[in-house]
MerR family transcriptional regulator
Amino acid sequence: MAKKIKEVANIAGVSVRTLHHYDEIELLSPKKTADSGYRLYTDENLETLQQILFFKELGFPLKKIKEIISSPSFDRREALKLHRKMLIEKRRRLDQMITTVEKTIQHSEGEIYMSNKERFEGFDFSHNSYEQEARERWGDKTVDESNAKMGNMSKEEKNDLSAGMNSIYTKLAALRHTSPASEKAQAAIKEWYDFLNKIGSYSLDAFKGLGQMYVDDERFTKNIDQFGEGLAKFMCDTMAIYADNNKK
């Protein structure tokens, strides 16, 4: 059942002003309008709000959250798994910091000796690797560029693109039992690299990373292995070799 803004604020524990702000920056806008003119939030809106608050709790700025959840490749279920992973890590660090505080109190009272190294256990000001993972999955500019190019193609062009893709997959599938470093395998994977750069902009590092996703993400693996069991792994290895060889 659709809800008014005040109801949503009470449910989520945020202010009405916060929800108005999210609406203004087009991060979260009510999807329905009642006969009375009130703008109403749907269950889908509430799911999105939950995602926003999870990302916000983990230190993501609103601009980055908007980029992530509006990406065509954003997956709610994958996002929840990432939230869990990040929160477990955050809990681990907080537990460590609580221990450090308790030991510092004991040290100040003369109960224990605390080394200088122990004073700073739990602090971590390094780059957030999970934020990078989220950005790579759902905020990647390459994905947006590819989707934009695809959207401007005619039906005939899209059919030609699909045929070209299937042709390369079929060729690689026939080679999947050979060495990924072989001349034929590397020539075939070059065709894939060139093909991808017709619809996007892939650096060699991005190409290698994409290959890794073929085996890390079961959705990629399942789709690619339709052309031949083990093809995803073969492509991953072949793409890595191609990227490394051509960066020299």
Residues 76-108 form the longest helix (33 residues). The beta strands are 32-33, 39-40.
